[in-house]
Automatic annotation (TrEMBL):
Keywords: ATP-binding, Coiled coil, Cytoplasm, Ligase, Nucleotide-binding, tRNA processing. One of its GO terms (molecular function) is tRNA(Ile)-lysidine synthase activity. Residues 134-161 form a coiled coil. One of its GO terms (cellular component) is cytoplasm. This is tRNA(Ile)-lysidine synthetase. It catalyses: cytidine(34) in tRNA(Ile2) + L-lysine + ATP = lysidine(34) in tRNA(Ile2) + AMP + diphosphate + H(+).
């Protein structure tokens, strides 16, 4: 048998809806259990089907390339060794080994968007467009993740060169932002806000900040979530806490 076996009860609260709140609570419990047992790695059971569902949900929300890149195979101590394997294959492997898979009742509750994608949307796509849709979506996620990692490496290489401290925050050179293509410029803006203030900007918010660079006509400051104010002054875009 397994030893130790830990069972943890969690409280699902917070922003982002019940699915996001449950995910946050679940990972917090896993992280705490891993720390308690000094585990070097936590293996998660996400499959290729889960990845395909994640990509479709991100596409429906217009979440951008980072979301469409899906789940990574490794994040810190969390690893997903089954991301390249179909869900049905994992179920059959359990049956062949004499094991009975446990099904979370929430996985058949059509009140959740992911369940509707799993039970309704993907089967329709497979029926109308032919087999292999889940695999194609997973390949798309992998390609986008490679692109996202390349962009992130580029940003990390020169972010310190174009940023400098400012009063109550950080400033970025307008010239440096202007010199970069839109995709990289907007990633820099999101990176600065996330790393400095811990806030993830939506595309609309990012574009609004970018207009201080690309469509400057003396407009006033932009107020972002969590009390962040963005202004253009003396050739710099300044991000500061109000």
């Amino acid at each position: 048998g397994l030893d130790p076996v830990l069972v943890r009860r969690v409280e699902v609260t917070g922003e982002g809806g019940p699915e996001a709140a449950a995910r946050t609570a679940r990972y917090a419990a896993l992280e705490a259990a891993a720390a308690e047992t000094d585990a070097a790695l936590v293996l998660l059971g996400h499959t290729l089907d889960d990845q395909a569902e994640t990509v479709l949900l991100g596409l429906a929300r217009g979440s951008g390339a980072a979301s469409l890149a899906g789940m990574p195979s490794r994040t810190g101590r969390f690893a997903r060794p089954l991301l390249g394997i179909r869900r049905e294959t994992t179920r059959q492997a359990c049956i062949d080994a004499g094991l009975t898979p446990w099904d979370d009742p929430h996985n058949v509750d059509r009140g959740y968007a992911r369940v509707r994608v799993r039970e309704r949307v993907l089967p329709v796509l497979e029926a109308e467009l032919g087999p292999g849709i889940a695999e194609a979506l997973a390949r798309t996620a992998e390609q986008l993740r490679e692109d996202d990692e390349a962009f992130s490496e580029q940003i990390d290489e020169f972010i310190e060169e174009i940023c400098e401290p400012s009063e109550a925050g950080i400033a970025v050179s307008v010239g440096a932002l202007t010199a970069n293509p839109a995709a990289l410029r907007q990633r820099i803006i999101r990176h600065v806000v996330l790393s400095e203030f811990g806030v993830s900007l939506s595309r609309a918010q990012t574009i609004e900040v970018a207009r201080l660079v690309t469509d400057w006509h003396g407009q006033g400051p932009i107020d972002l979530p969590a009390g962040i104010r963005v202004t253009r002054s003396a050739g710099r875009i300044e991000f500061a806490a109000r």
